[in-house]
Amino acid sequence: MSLAIQLGIIVGYLLLALAIGLLAYRLTDRTAEDFYLASRTVGTVVLLFTTFATLLSAFTFFAGPNMAYAWGPEWILVMGLMDGIIFAVLWYVVGYKQWLLGQRYDYVTLGEMLGDRFASSGLRGLVAGISLVWLFPYVMLQQVGAGTALEALTDGAVSYAMGAGLLTVFMICYVVVAGFRGVAWTDTLQGAFMLVTTWLAFAWVLVAVGGLEAATGTLGDSPATAEFLALGSANYTPQWMLSTAITIGFGVAMFPQVNQRFFVAGSKRVVKRSFALWPILCVLLFVPSFLLGVWARGLGLEMGESGNILPVVLNEYTPVWFAAVVVAGAMAAMMSSSDSMLLSGSSYFTRDLYRPFVEADLSDRREDLIARAGVVCFAVATFLASLYNPATLFELGDAAFGGFAQLALPVILALYWRGTTRSGLIAGIAGSQAFYLSSLFVPPLPGSYAGWTAGVVGMLLGAALTVAVSWATASTVADRRSRYFDISSDD
């Protein structure tokens, strides 16, 4: 009976998300721009929550509490505070400028904007190709998270493959049908649902264990747990904390599904309100979810075979039905990330690879059809890869954040420095990516430098290469460059 209740709650929620997508389909124009960006008409609440829900993934709900359980509560500072502030600043620095450019020139993707800025289809394809490479493991991360969560919640009655497949099927259905409008509407529901269920779980566990003192009282009783609570411990050096916050914050701004949201706002006021409210939402979600991981360490709970502590805490201290509701919230987080990634990945493929290199005179209607087919292909490919479960959730997410972060500084230079050249930008992007990939896959190369991760070092290398090569090739700057710097906030 308990299994039927668990699956009924989770499947019921997935069906509700699908119903919202079908409703959005009735209001969706059969054009590529509406499919990708909802015709640039998104308001403050929907923009804020669709961005919020898009970023809150298996990395947040499972990898974050796992890190807090293993290493200590400083993870709240890294994700809950530092990253919230960093991304809010980048939302203004990168996002607002992109919104201004998108309003004037109708850009849909980052690669399209940069390719037009430097009159280069090769640059456009490079940015899209790199983005799709790093998007693949992050979509896979959501499927891995869904599979492990349902397997743990149901004590193996639902296999890992069935859980990952369930998420994949529902994502394909409502993304293909509804496009960005449906994704944004379901994200708004899912963002609110995640906040409510996380705080309810926080309060329920707190009451069940006998209050805050009982939850935290045993954490400092031994030398091992005292180190666990020490700020700046061996696991959390200042360099590591800053490196992680920087690569995640800058990487988020370059994620395709986030970066495209810089183009969708209906007005300048919508953009500004959204980035101002962003840090508040981060704190409201990350603090309770990561504290559950910290408390599990003090309460003596074991991680279990799933490798995720959150289902263990819920199964131990909450009723079956409530644990299923919270896992449904986690599934909402995974769906709201994956659906947007699939949609953005499809647009990067059709707009920046297929259109310029395969079919230049692609009609709008045909592009819309290819985009929907691309969603299916990408989702199936990541699902098949997820069946091998090659790495932990943190490893998959951390690698993807670092890879996207390598794009950030060259892109910021392209947006604000008139002296940036096509050759400089290509050198900065390609050089930093090569360095970062080497640090991941070439064993003799170090993964950190004086405590700073290779992700941060690669970002600085990318900026230096962009500046140096741009100075050396200054005469090759495209004539169209000036129009990108004549746009003001009053336009």
TrEMBL record:
<keyword id="KW-0813">Transport</keyword>
<feature type="transmembrane region" description="Helical">
    <location>
        <begin position="369"/>
        <end position="388"/>
    </location>
</feature>
<dbReference type="InterPro" id="IPR001734">
    <property type="entry name" value="Na/solute_symporter"/>
</dbReference>
<feature type="transmembrane region" description="Helical">
    <location>
        <begin position="37"/>
        <end position="63"/>
    </location>
</feature>
<keyword id="KW-0812">Transmembrane</keyword>
<keyword id="KW-0739">Sodium transport</keyword>
<feature type="transmembrane region" description="Helical">
    <location>
        <begin position="192"/>
        <end position="216"/>
    </location>
</feature>
<dbReference type="GO" id="GO:0005886">
    <property type="term" value="C:plasma membrane"/>
</dbReference>
<keyword id="KW-0472">Membrane</keyword>
<dbReference type="InterPro" id="IPR050277">
    <property type="entry name" value="Sodium:Solute_Symporter"/>
</dbReference>
<protein>
    <submittedName>
        <fullName>Solute:Na+ symporter, SSS family</fullName>
    </submittedName>
</protein>
<dbReference type="GO" id="GO:0006814">
    <property type="term" value="P:sodium ion transport"/>
</dbReference>
<feature type="transmembrane region" description="Helical">
    <location>
        <begin position="6"/>
        <end position="25"/>
    </location>
</feature>
<comment type="similarity">
    <text>Belongs to the sodium:solute symporter (SSF) (TC 2.A.21) family.</text>
</comment>
<dbReference type="InterPro" id="IPR038377">
    <property type="entry name" value="Na/Glc_symporter_sf"/>
</dbReference>
<keyword id="KW-0406">Ion transport</keyword>
<feature type="transmembrane region" description="Helical">
    <location>
        <begin position="275"/>
        <end position="296"/>
    </location>
</feature>
<feature type="transmembrane region" description="Helical">
    <location>
        <begin position="75"/>
        <end position="94"/>
    </location>
</feature>
<feature type="transmembrane region" description="Helical">
    <location>
        <begin position="400"/>
        <end position="417"/>
    </location>
</feature>
<feature type="transmembrane region" description="Helical">
    <location>
        <begin position="236"/>
        <end position="255"/>
    </location>
</feature>
<feature type="transmembrane region" description="Helical">
    <location>
        <begin position="449"/>
        <end position="474"/>
    </location>
</feature>
<feature type="transmembrane region" description="Helical">
    <location>
        <begin position="123"/>
        <end position="140"/>
    </location>
</feature>
<keyword id="KW-0915">Sodium</keyword>
<keyword id="KW-1003">Cell membrane</keyword>
<keyword id="KW-1133">Transmembrane helix</keyword>
<feature type="transmembrane region" description="Helical">
    <location>
        <begin position="424"/>
        <end position="443"/>
    </location>
</feature>
<keyword id="KW-0769">Symport</keyword>
<dbReference type="Pfam" id="PF00474">
    <property type="entry name" value="SSF"/>
</dbReference>
<feature type="transmembrane region" description="Helical">
    <location>
        <begin position="160"/>
        <end position="180"/>
    </location>
</feature>
<feature type="transmembrane region" description="Helical">
    <location>
        <begin position="320"/>
        <end position="349"/>
    </location>
</feature>
<dbReference type="GO" id="GO:0015293">
    <property type="term" value="F:symporter activity"/>
</dbReference>
